[in-house]
Amino acid sequence: MTAAAFAIDDPLTWFDRLQRAYIERSDEALLEEVADLGRMMAVTDFPLEGIVEVHGQVLTDALAANPAGGMPGLVAAAATCLSELLVAHRVASVGVAGDSGSRSGGDHPLADFIHFLPGGALAGETVSGSPAESPQMGSPPRDLFQWIEELAGRERSEGAREAVARRRMLMFEARLPGDGGHIRVIVCPFHDGGGIMGSRDISRLVNAREEAFQRRRLESVGQLAGGLAHELNNLLQPIVSMAQMAREDCAAKPEDAELEEALSVILDCALRAAEIVHGMLVYVRRSPRGLTAAFLGDAVAQELDTIRRTLPAGIALEFHGPDEAASVVSLQTGELGQILKNIVRNAAQAMAGSGRITVTVDEILAAPAQAVRLQVPAGRYGRLTIADTGPGIAAGQQDHIFEPFFTTKDIGMGTGLGLSIVQGIVKSWGGVVIARNHPEGGAVFEILLPATEPPSASHAAAAGRQHRGEFSENLGQGRIALIVDDDTRVLGAWERLLKRGGFDARAFVRGEDAVAAAVRGDGDLLLTDLMMPGMDGPELIGLVRQARPGIRVIVATGGAGHETDVEDAMLSASALGADEILLKPVPADRLFETLKRLYP
To answer: Which of 36, 473, 530, 554 has its CA 20 to 30 A from that of 2?
Structure first.
């Protein structure tokens, strides 16, 4: 007999038919089919809620159509049929359904079923008859094993043949062609050589699994970043400080121009390494957040001056800022540099070393309708636009470019974290990033940041100053600086740097020794690490403040420890009166800029 296939609109209809037939004639073969139906419903996770209702309706109809004398036999037959289905369902459901929690209630998306009748379908013949239209499995189904090979791969075909031959249920997951999503497929062979193929759309489940995997992956990255950041930043701090001081010395001697250039390379590499570490800390939210109001155009122009020197000769970098001071936003200068470097470097790589990158800063007013589309509150925004003349964003990639670890670059050319870091920073500032292709070609990134009140004149002036060549200034004027860090290399670098700035610098590995000095009346400045063994930064600040209420306090942290530990320590340090919180490695010009604000 040639096999035929037909769609089962509802397994409850099938149970209704089987139960009525069994009540009419107690055929053991019908009970086997009932059991097959129960197994099929179990492995497809089909809910049982309707079974009792169907059972009751069938029994009611049978009793109404038969004399009262046949009632016990009808009831017994109906109960036997129901019991057979429930027992088979129970046995099949143990350890078969797949994902834990799938039976715990909630939505049960209906599966698609195709019933293959006995004959050629299981022997390799093409299924004929009414094609079963199935949005999940495709239309029409062909030979069973060809279908399994197409979805599950040829490597599973032999296992599938053996499973069907021995009446073992077969379950696997498959991805449909194109963007058809994921399905779970169940093959339930029957006693008579026929069978059921069921499929359920599990795209949401697969996506949830992938998201959970990404979260675990990011947690691992976060643990790694948190564990390494302190050591790396402590190593980079003396490199940066010593290189800057040595370069400053060479700048005054023309004969040392070559050495000065070599020191500049060392310094640039160290600062680039610090950016990478800082980027990881930002992404896993382990770095301190200290936002200040700044003119977006001025801040961008200053960062581009540094970036421009690192681009290939064939890349033209143009900047168009506002005609006057405008677009005041809250940002962190170091993180703004990360945003620009990530996007500009991506653009330069996409253009293969030849093309134009245009950076524009202006201000827009997001009306309510536009704000809803952008998913931001209505109001004024500073807009930073970065456009290039490259190939643009490839079709199908625009929805993925901000995903962590997504990259189109070759192995070793990128981590896939750059744009994820950009999005994380912008979101933490209350802004939004929009990526699109320009109609005339090239990629465009628009960053909208909420406008705020202008910074004070003194702060704006200080933020725009560069302090290279000013290490010898007598900023300290003989003031006593207490320096505390558990790394002696960092202590040595801080000590030399502050002495160059005119401070009487005194270094301590233990916080207790610095407290003792403060109790003796020493200390105009406290420069301390945040996370240290024994007495940590917040405790140290509190005790020193008690002894020297007017002391100025700068916290320099490498960002180590668990995220909540760092954040709690930062909050404690601020509450106890830390004047400035800096992230290691702190360049000399940034430290001197901070000192100038503390000692105007």
So the answer is: 36
3-class DSSP state for residue 404? coil
Is the domain spanning 222-288+469-600 CATH 3.40.630.30? The answer is: no
Mean pLDDT of the region 242-255: 85
Q: How far is CA 530 from CA 235, 495, 593, in A?
A: 16, 17, 20
Dump the DSSP string for 157-209. HHHHHHHHHTT--EEEEEE-STT--EEEEEEEE-TTS-EEEEEEE-HHHHHHH
**324/61: higher pLDDT:** 61
Q: Which CATH class is domain 292-459?
A: alpha beta
**Sign of the torsion formed by the C-alpha atoms of 343, 345, 348 and 352:** negative
* Residue 94: Cβ-neighbour burial (10 angstroms; 0-12, 13-18, 19+): exposed
Are the C-beta atoms of 449 and 331 separated by less than 8 Å?
A: yes
- State the Cα angle at 215 between 212 and 218, rounded to 5°: 150
Question: φ and ψ at 536, to 5 degrees?
Answer: -90, 180
Whether residue 234 contacts residue 490, with contact meaning beta carbons closer than 8 Å, is answered with yes
Domain range list for the chain: 1-201, 222-288+469-600, 292-459
In angstroms, the CA 408 to CA 419 distance is 12
The answer to whether the CB of 482 falls within 8 A of the CB of 522 is: yes
Q: What is the mean pLDDT of the segment spanning 99-112?
A: 42
**Amino acid at residue number 391:** P
Which pLDDT does position 361 carry in this prediction? 92
- CA nearest to 124, candidates 3, 7, 36, 5: 3
Q: How many residues does the chain have?
A: 600
Between the ranges 91-95, 268-272, 439-443, 461-465, where is the mean pLDDT highest?
439-443
State the pTM of this model: 0.47
